[in-house]
Amino acid sequence: MSTISDAITKDHREIEQYYNEVINNPNDHDHQTRYGNQFVWELARHSVGEELVVYPAMEKYLGQKGKDMAESDRKEHAVVKQKLKVFQNMKATDPDYINKLQDLWGPLSEHIKEEEEQDLPALEQQLQAIEGESESMAKSFGRTKAFVPSRSHPSAGEHPPFETAMGMLAAPIDHLADLFRKFLDKTVSPNPSTK
């Protein structure tokens, strides 16, 4: 069974892979479109999943330190979501496409590093005392990602219940629009219930 740290880290590696596919294929706009859409899809869902499952757990299990960590992470997410909103509305043929993705990757890669080196180890240390809690959180994180928006909506906020309510309104529209976007080897969006 996967821990919450394993689930988050797995997502981070996938997001990084999609980023690299876009950056390393500058002359293949179809490839960039597919991987760019996959990048947006995964990052948007991952971010909301963290905000609804991981950050409340940090606040619950790590006390004031966890509250401070979660609030810092939410602020970092707000910056990334704003940049993602700009990128997700671009086409691979736009002259600034790669530059905007690199602009987004800077703060995102710092956030990922901080989560993996500081936040998640601190959380896992506390979760060790509660048998099965980390694994249960990983399952909840996966289920949550199946129902949240697949595009960035910075105006939804980063705090439940507002984000939850806004997400439930935006998710069906995002999922419907995904049917008309290109993804990797498919012409329709990945099925979020299988991720």
Automatic annotation (TrEMBL):
Note the Gene3D superfamilies from the entry. Answer: nmb1532 protein domain like
Annotated ranges, domain Hemerythrin-like: 3-123
Per the UniProt record, the lineage of the source organism begins with: Eukaryota, Fungi, Dikarya, Ascomycota, Pezizomycotina
What name appears for this protein in its UniProt entry?
Hemerythrin-like domain-containing protein
